[in-house]
Amino acid sequence: RTTPLFQHYDAESKKLGSPKQLFHGTSLFSAQNIARDGFRLPSHAGKYGKGLYFAFNPHKSACYAEGYMLVCDVYLGSSRTVVAASWNNVEPSTDLKGGWIRKTLGMGEYHGIYAVGL
Q1: Does residue 116 sit in helix, strand or coil?
Q2: In b/e form, how buried is each residue of 42-54, taking b as 16+ CB within 10 angstroms?
Q3: How many degrees, rounded to 5, is the angle at CA 74 between CA 83 and CA 118?
Q4: Integer Cα distance of 16 and 107 in angstroms
Q5: Fewer CB within 10 Å: N-end or C-end of the chain?
Q6: Pairwise CA distance, residues 81 & 69, whole Å
Q7: Which tens digit of pLDDT belongs to each residue from 14-38?
Q8: What are phi and psi of 23, to 5 degrees?
Q9: What is 87-112 written as a DSSP string?
Q10: Half-sphere exposure (CA, 13 Å, Cβ side) for 21?
């Protein structure tokens, strides 16, 4: 059975393409909250700024895990690729802006940031 809210999220996610299975290291308390309420954008900045952190490599997520690892279907949409060493303190409201080339081509804003070298 699906709910109207699930159907809404399912329709929105299809606009972002196919999901990628990515890893998220966390604590038991946070894993329980995520399972119950889903991911929430934190009010405080993490190591690289405000955001949710996922990794293709489980070893990377294990470095941040407090004993627990989630395997998540993540809809990346259009990602801005950056070099991790040059990016910290990411601010989604400004750093996901597409710029004039994306606007001219009708591509819109980015959905997330892919940091190479993390």
Answers
A1: strand
A2: eeeeeebebbebb
A3: 25
A4: 13
A5: N
A6: 25
A7: 888 888 999 999 999 999 999 999 8
A8: -105, 150
A9: --SB-HHHHT--HHHHHHTT----SE
A10: 4
